[in-house]
């Protein structure tokens, strides 16, 4: 496959409601899209960086600069490029997994559209739908939280994830358990807001029968996570800490976690994400698909990934309307707590032209 050129496009989409985590609050998403053009087909990539480097070191303007100056030139000059060659071609540039993942996703989409094969088929999906959970942000009151959780349960979500931080942990979890009962699959995500010194507060969550606690400590604190895991009954799951299959193998070997959240952007792409899945599946470690408030493009690929057999827990693969009044693509809709895996070639969905035009704030064309 020879790349004719690449478009970098910025879009701005308002979230249906603000989303608050321990590291910040998002009202809108300013998203970088990549469109790879080849003689046979076009492919779309969605970069999952946020506007500011609060979740990880990457941020959207930085990713755009890196793609423009280094990553896109390095792939455009490769004759006969395929998605599997993208990561090796970019390996000389340090870090920046989200920018790299977006470019690999666009190349893979073009390749698969040209070949008439879906993402799910290529990645190894089994079954034609996936079980979905929902990530519920930090709210300004317990009442507001209970309303939100009640609404999501009514829509059919199969598990609830509560964002927590010091001061918003035991009380919201207790309130959700009291209102909705012990049988609702429930988990929490701290986005690295605690230190090992705060382990006592986290141990107070043990009585609520949570399925897991996600990323309680800083991304680099693998050994502290291993210590914490020994102090808690609740299984520890890592998100921010797991940046590659190698890192996942190490984290599992030292007992830093017993569950893994797989986000393709965080690990440099769908191919590395699949390697982490394979590693975990071979070791009997449950995984689930995380999310980064994606549009229908990223959602399509995540749903395909989440259909791999080792994804035994419901993902943060929520329906379009959990995020957007109008998605960029045909909306993903929840049926019996599930989203359908797209079956058409590539991502199986494309931006709706009018919607794309409406939300675009900037475009830029790069060619050899
Ligand atoms: O930690 O999983 C996270 C969103 C943005 C950044 C980090 C996280 C999240 C979510 C939302 O929890 C997941 C989603 O619904 O896309
Ligand atoms: Mg997380």
TrEMBL record:
<keyword id="KW-0456">Lyase</keyword>
<protein>
    <recommendedName>
        <fullName>o-succinylbenzoate synthase</fullName>
        <ecNumber>4.2.1.113</ecNumber>
    </recommendedName>
</protein>
<feature type="domain" description="Mandelate racemase/muconate lactonizing enzyme C-terminal">
    <location>
        <begin position="142"/>
        <end position="235"/>
    </location>
</feature>
<dbReference type="InterPro" id="IPR029017">
    <property type="entry name" value="Enolase-like_N"/>
</dbReference>
<dbReference type="InterPro" id="IPR036849">
    <property type="entry name" value="Enolase-like_C_sf"/>
</dbReference>
<dbReference type="InterPro" id="IPR013341">
    <property type="entry name" value="Mandelate_racemase_N_dom"/>
</dbReference>
<keyword id="KW-0479">Metal-binding</keyword>
<dbReference type="InterPro" id="IPR029065">
    <property type="entry name" value="Enolase_C-like"/>
</dbReference>
<dbReference type="GO" id="GO:0043748">
    <property type="term" value="F:O-succinylbenzoate synthase activity"/>
</dbReference>
<dbReference type="Pfam" id="PF13378">
    <property type="entry name" value="MR_MLE_C"/>
</dbReference>
<keyword id="KW-0460">Magnesium</keyword>
<dbReference type="InterPro" id="IPR013342">
    <property type="entry name" value="Mandelate_racemase_C"/>
</dbReference>
<dbReference type="Pfam" id="PF02746">
    <property type="entry name" value="MR_MLE_N"/>
</dbReference>
<dbReference type="InterPro" id="IPR010197">
    <property type="entry name" value="OSBS/NAAAR"/>
</dbReference>
């Amino acid at each position: 496959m020879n790349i004719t050129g690449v478009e970098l496009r910025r879009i701005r989409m308002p979230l249906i409601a603000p989303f608050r985590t321990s590291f910040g609050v998002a009202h809108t998403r300013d998203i970088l899209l990549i469109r790879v053009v080849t003689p046979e087909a076009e492919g779309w990539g969605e970069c999952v960086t946020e506007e500011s480097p609060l979740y990880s070191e990457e941020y959207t303007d930085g990713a755009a600069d890196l793609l423009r100056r280094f990553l896109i030139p390095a792939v455009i000059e490769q004759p006969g490029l395929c998605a599997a060659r993208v990561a090796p071609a970019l390996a000389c540039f340090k870090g920046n997994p989200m920018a790299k993942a977006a470019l690999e996703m666009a190349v893979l989409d073009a390749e698969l559209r040209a070949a008439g094969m879906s993402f799910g088929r290529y990645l190894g999906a089994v079954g034609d739908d996936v079980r979905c959970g929902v990530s519920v942000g930090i709210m300004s009151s317990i009442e507001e939280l209970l309303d939100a959780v009640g609404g999501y349960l009514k829509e059919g979500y199969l598990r609830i994830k509560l964002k927590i931080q010091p001061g918003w942990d035991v009380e919201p979890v207790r309130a959700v358990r009291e209102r909705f009962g012990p049988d609702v699959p429930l988990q929490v995500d701290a986005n690295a807001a605690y230190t090992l010194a705060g382990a006592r507060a986290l141990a107070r969550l043990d009585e609520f029968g949570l399925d897991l606690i996600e990323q309680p400590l800083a991304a680099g604190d693998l050994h502290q996570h291993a210590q914490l895991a020994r102090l808690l009954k609740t299984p520890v799951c890592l998100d921010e800490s797991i940046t590659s299959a190698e890192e996942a193998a190490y984290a599992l070997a030292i007992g830093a976690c017993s569950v893994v959240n797989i986000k393709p952007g965080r690990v440099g792409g769908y191919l590395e994400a699949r390697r982490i899945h394979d590693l975990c599946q071979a070791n009997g470690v449950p995984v689930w698909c995380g999310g980064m408030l994606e549009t229908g493009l990223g959602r399509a690929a995540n749903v395909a990934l989440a259909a791999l057999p080792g994804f035994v827990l419901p993902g943060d693969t929520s329906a379009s309307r959990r995020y957007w009044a109008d998605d960029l693509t045909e909306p993903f809709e929840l049926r019996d707590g599930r989203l359908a895996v797209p079956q058409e070639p590539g991502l199986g969905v494309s931006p709706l032209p009018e919607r794309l035009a409406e939300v675009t704030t900037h475009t830029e064309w790069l060619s050899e």
